[in-house]
Amino acid sequence: MRNPLAPISAAAQLLKNVKIDEGRVRQASEIIARQAEHMSNLVNDLLDVARLTRGEVTFDKHPVEIQSLVSDAVEQVSPLIKMRRHQFVLQQPAESLVVLGDRKRLVQVIANLLNNAAKYTPKGGNILVRIEAHPDQVGLVVQDDGIGIEPDVLPGIFELFTQAKRSADRLQGGLGIGLSLVRSIVRFHGGSVTVRGRATSTGTKFTVSLPRHIELPVLAPTGGGEPVPPLAKILQIMIADDDRDAALMLSMLLDAAGHETFVEHNGFHALERARAEAPDICILTIDLPDMDGNEIARQMRSIEAMAQPVLIAITGSSQDRDRKTSFEAGFDHYLVKPLDLKKLIALLAELGEASNSP
Question: What backbone torsions phi and psi does residue 76 show, to the nearest 5 degrees?
């Protein structure tokens, strides 16, 4: 996990201490964003493993078409496949195959397997994905002709922190927990996953089996590709966050989106400022040091003479009990860090449009 910190730190020092042209600034910013995303993915994997191990993950199951899950996963991994010039083949039946599952988690399973195939297959190699129809099961095969899995590693490949030997040109590595996540998620869906390593240096074949959903499905939305709603109203937004860098960047981004923002860094000042300014929206970090976001929300909702803003919680916790506590305190929305800024801007657009309605 220290690996992404090196380029982030170097880029930050460059921006801080060296006078550079706009092109270099953009390049350094892209490096920071790319490495921060990589580190965020590592942290999310660790959190997922911890929650799955403790049984704290709730799966939002709907009928979903397996072909659309594969399409979403391929879209995620395609930049890596293209960069390494792999020959990618998708084989799928004409009939629609539906499973009952959590779209996000099942896409995560397929994307993890595809990522493994791409990372462990030399440039110009072959990756095959095949969807198979069975009477009561849907099969998904991900096969490559990469470096394979050594026989001594194969029996424990789905255990935590197990990794096959890396190739010399392998890109950013993970923590050895991706396949453990795959097995856990598939099992929670009533399915199974197996692996066959034909021999070292001759590739690997993963097979996922999931119960087939036979009823006529109401397909879950595919997600992604939706345009951000246009700005319906300029909103006045208060941001309360003791992380000054995070608060500043969020303020700058929302200002750039057309809204008006102001920032406070502690709970007492945020409460007084909200009473004085009467913002449309308050975005509050839960873990403020002097008065947490939940207490601010309670006090705001208890002051009858105060204009009541829409309250949005931002926090690092996605546990159901924490969500419940925040909603009971008076929050209208609950967002988990790192923030999905497109989702936040879309939410603000919806709130602005709603406030314009008679």
Answer: -65, -40
> Looking at the structure, do residues 123 and 201 belong to the same domain, yes or no?
yes
Query: β-pairing, 126-133 with 137-144?
Result: antiparallel
Decide if 220 is inside a domain.
no
Q: What is the pLDDT of residues 8-48, one digit of tens each?
A: 888 888 888 777 788 888 888 888 888 888 778 777 777 77
* pLDDT score of 163 more than 90: no
Structure token digits, residue 3: 């690996």
Please indicate, yes or no, if residue 226 is contained in any of the structural domains: no
Instruction: Tell me if 227 is assigned to some domain.
Output: no
At residue 302 the predicted structure's pLDDT band, cuts being 50, 70 and 90, is: very high
CATH label of the domain that carries residue 323: 3.40.50.2300
Q: In which residue are the tokens 């099992």 written?
A: 187
How many structural domains are present in the chain?
3
The DSSP H or E segment spanning 285 is strand 281-285
Q: What is the pLDDT of residues 124-156, one digit of tens each?
A: 999 999 999 998 899 999 999 887 776 666 655
Q: Are 26 and 68 in the same domain?
A: no
DSSP conformational letter for 292? -
Residue 80, pLDDT above cutoff 90:
no
CATH number of 189's domain: 3.30.565.10
Identify whether the C-beta of residue 168 lies closer than 8 Å to the C-beta of residue 146. no
Half-sphere exposure of 313 (CA within 13 A, CB side): 28
The encoded tokens of residue 88 equal 């990618």
Print the domain residue range for 48: 5-54
Task: Provide the pLDDT confidence category of residue 333 given band limits of 50, 70 and 90.
Answer: very high
Q: Is the domain of 36 the same as that of 66? A: no
Is the pTM for the entire model greater than 0.85?
no
Look at phi and psi of residue 208 and say left if phi exceeds 0, alpha if psi is from -120 to 50, else beta.
beta
Q: How distant is the alpha carbon of residue 57 from its chain centre?
A: 15
Same domain, 130 and 249: no
- Burial of residue 95 (CB within 10 Å: 0-12, 13-18, 19+) is exposed
